[in-house]
Amino acid sequence: MKNLKLMATTALCALTGITPALAQVTELGAPEGQVSIVAWPGYIERGETDKAFDWVTKFEEASGCKVNVKTANTSDEMVALMNEGGFDLVTASGDASLRLVAGDRVQPINTDLIPSWKTVDERLQNAPWHTVDGVHYGVPYMWGPNVLMYNTEVFKEPPTSWNVVFEEMDLPDGKSNKGRVQAYDGPIHIADAAQYLMAHKPELGITSPYELNEDQYKAALDLLRAQRNLVSRYWHDAFIQIDDFKNEGVVASGSWPFQVNLLKADGQPVASTIPEEGATGWADTTMMHVDAKNPNCAYLWMEHSLASNLQSDLAVWFGANPSVPAACTDGRGMSTAESCTANGMDDFDKIRFWTTPVSNCSQGEGACVPYYRWVSDYIGVIGGR
Amino acid sequence: MTAPAILPARGLADRLTGLFWRHPRVLLALLLTPPLLWLGVVYLGSLAALLLQSFYAIDEFSGVVKEEFTLKTYGELLRPSNFDILVRTVIMAACVTLACAALAFPIAYYAARYARGHWKAAFYLGVMLPLWSSYLVKVYAWKLILAKEGIIGWAAERTHTSWIIDGLLSIPGLEGSSLSTSPLGTFAVFCYIWLPYMILPMQAALERVPTSMLEASADLGATRAQAFRTVVLPLALPGVIAGSIFTFSLTLGDYIIPQIIGNSANFIGMAVYQLQGTAGNIPLAAAFAVVPILIMLVYLALARRMGAFDAL
Question: For the whole model, what pTM was predicted?
Answer without folding.
Answer: 0.78
